[in-house]
Amino acid sequence: MKFKIFLLIVLTSSVAFAGSLDEAIMQSTSGMKAQGARMKVVAQNIANTTSTGQTPGAEPYRRKLIFFKNKIDKNTGYNVVQVDKITGDRKTKFNAKFDPSHPAANADGYVLLPNVEPTIENLDMKEAQRGYEANLGAVETSKKMIGSTIDLLR
Questions:
Q1: Using one digit for the tens of pLDDT, what is the confidence trace for 70-92?
Q2: What does each C-alpha distance from 122 to 22, 42, 43, 62 come to in angstroms?
Q3: Cβ–Cβ contacts within 10 Å for residue 13, how many?
C-alpha cells in the first residue's frame, strides 16, 4: 500500500513538473518568435541605410523600432512575449549630405539621409541573436528535463 501511494505522489508531481516545463517551452518559443521579428526589423533597417527620397525635400527611409509586451495566451493561459508595435524612430534626426545633383536635393543642395546607424543595427542584431540562442537553450534544457522525468517513470 505504501508503494502505491508513493508511486501516485511521484506520478502526480511529475505531471505538474512536466506542465511547468511545457510552460517554459511555450514562453521560450514565444521569445524566439519575438527575436525573429526583431531580426526582421533590423534587416529592413540595414537594407535601407541609403534609401533617400525621390523628390526634393522628400523624407528618406525612417529607422524602424520594435516593441514587445507580455500577454496571457488565450489557448494555454501561459504568459508569453509578443510584438506590441513597430514604429518609425521619430527621435533620431535625419542626416544631411550636400549633393545638389541628387533628385531629392532641396533648394540648398542638401539631401536628407536615413536615420539608420549601421553600428547600432549590428548591436541590435547581436542582441537579437543572443536572445534567440538563450531561448533555444531553455527549450533544449526543458526537453532534456522532460525526457529525464519520463525515464524516471519507466
A1: 999 898 888 899 999 999 999 99
A2: 33, 8, 9, 17
A3: 11
